[in-house]
Structure formats: C-alpha cells, structure tokens
Design goal:
globular, five-stranded mixed beta sheet, 8 helices
Length: 277
C-alpha cells in the first residue's frame, strides 16, 4: 500500500513539474504583452526618407525600407517576436498608438511632451534637427526665421507633426498649410504653391538629393532633439525591452549601419507614400 501511495505521489510530482514546464515555455514564447501573440506590430509612415520609404528593387517592385524599418526588425528579433509593419499616414500612426491598435510607432517621432498622454517614448535612437526649406532662387527671402513670419506667405508642415507647432511658433502671421505627407509638401513647394516648409533635417537632406531645386536655408531651434519610438502606453515590460534593444543597436554599431544603408537607398529610385490597393 505504502509503495502504491509513493508511486502515486511520484506520478503527481512528474505531472506537476510537466505542467510548470509547459507554463514556463508558454510564458517564454509570449513574454511580452502585444496586440497579437508572438508578433510585434509596428505602425510607420512611409513618406519620410531616410526614416521610412519604399525602395524600388531591380524588378521595379517597392520594398519597405529605411532605418526605422531596419530598427523595427532588429527590435523584433531581440524580443523573439515576428515583425508586422503597418504602413499608414503619419497622423494615423499617432491614432493607432492612442487606441493601442499597434505595439510601436516608428516614424521619426520626436518625444514631444504633448504626446505623452497617448504614448510612452523609448530612449532616443537617432539625433536629428529641424529645418526650414524653400526652393532655390528664394533663399534670400529667408535670411532669418523672422522672415518666415509674414502675412501672405504659404508655409507647409506635415499634419500631426511637431513641425506644425514649429510653424505656428515661428511663423504665426503666415498661412500654415498642413498636408498629410511630406511628399505633398515637396510637390507643393516645387509647384510654387508653398513659399517654404518646416521639415525634419535628415528628411529634408534626403529630398534635396533627389530634388536639387530644394534649398535648406535655416536651422530651426527645438527643445526636444532626436527621434524616439512610440510605445503603447502603460506597457512597461515592452518599453524596457525596446530600450534595451535600442541601446544594443547603438552600442554594437547596427544603428550606424542602418542609417548608412538607408541614406544610400534613399539616393536611388524610391516611392514615398502609401501603396494603392
């Protein structure tokens, strides 16, 4: 009888350990609380080269590219999750984060304190700046930022971006024209429908390579420099893991490589904006 009880207890212990092992394995597989089990869902706005855009391959097919996209893949790999990119307009990235429909937003986001009520921010992963852009031949009109603050001027900025705030701060007397995509701003500048625009410096430099008619004329002061990743608010474990991956990408040289590769791709044939269909 004692031998039977001992055997039963041993069997129960084995089953208990197996159950614990199963729970541990499952916990490890889905360690992070994400909108889809086993996936890292990342919203991006592919009209912001060299951050994110479509590179046209040798067969003429658009491939999502940019150093934000490369960093998203790096983070997903570090977290052991499958990457799912969600291309959307820039203001849509903010909305998706606000509604917690995605885990991350990687779209050259500045960690603006006004956005902290709808998302958490990672550590800075790229240091950038802000610029005022016009077309060649108009440089002399804008010797200082004060010259942008004139009634009758049409000044562009991307909807939902911090550049809108910069335009309102520095050019309040001008007509501030908000457009959904940076490509729309560039097109309006080249068509003479805008006198100038506020654009993130790295993005402006990328466009100037492909559109030599553009002129970057002024640096625009901004208290919050650099780009951070938007993280679904309140997900502390995911935020910590993202920060660890960002620091690793910075320290092991991956981020420098991502930026160099993105700049090289952005100088080639690209498409910026959302694909149809």
């Amino acid at each position: 009888m004692k031998k039977l009880i001992a055997l039963l207890l041993a069997a129960m212990m084995v089953l208990s350990l197996a159950a614990c092992g199963s729970k541990s394995a499952s916990s490890k597989q889905y360690k992070y609380n994400t909108v889809a089990d086993g996936k890292l869902t990342v919203a991006t706005s592919p009209d912001f080269a060299p951050y994110e855009f479509y590179a046209i391959d040798a067969n003429g097919n658009p491939q999502l590219a940019g150093f934000d996209v490369a960093l998203a893949g790096y983070i997903a790999n570090e977290l052991g999750l499958e990457l799912e990119m969600v291309p959307i307009d820039f203001d849509g990235v903010l909305m998706e984060l606000q509604t917690k429909s995605v885990d991350l937003g990687l779209a050259g986001l500045s960690p603006d304190p006004d956005r902290e009520n709808i998302m958490d921010f990672s550590d800075i992963y790229y240091m950038g700046g802000q610029s005022f852009v016009t077309v060649k031949g108009s440089e002399s009109k804008f010797a200082t930022l004060a010259d942008t603050n004139q009634a009758g001027l049409q000044i562009g900025a991307q909807t939902g971006s911090i550049q809108v705030g910069l335009a309102e701060e520095n050019s309040p007397n001008a007509d501030i024209i908000q457009l959904a995509k940076v490509t729309d701003i560039i097109a309006e500048l080249l068509a003479g429908k805008l006198d100038g625009a506020y654009i993130e410096t790295a993005v402006a430099e990328s466009y100037a390579v492909n559109y030599p008619e553009l002129a970057i004329v002024l640096d625009v002061p901004y208290d919050v420099e650099g780009s951070a990743i938007g993280v679904s608010k309140g997900n502390a474990e995911l935020l910590a893991a993202v920060n660890a991956a960002v620091q690793k990408a910075l320290s092991d040289g991956s981020m420098d490589r991502f930026v160099a590769e993105a700049n090289e791709q952005a100088a080639g044939e690209i498409y910026e904006g959302l694909l149809e269909g």
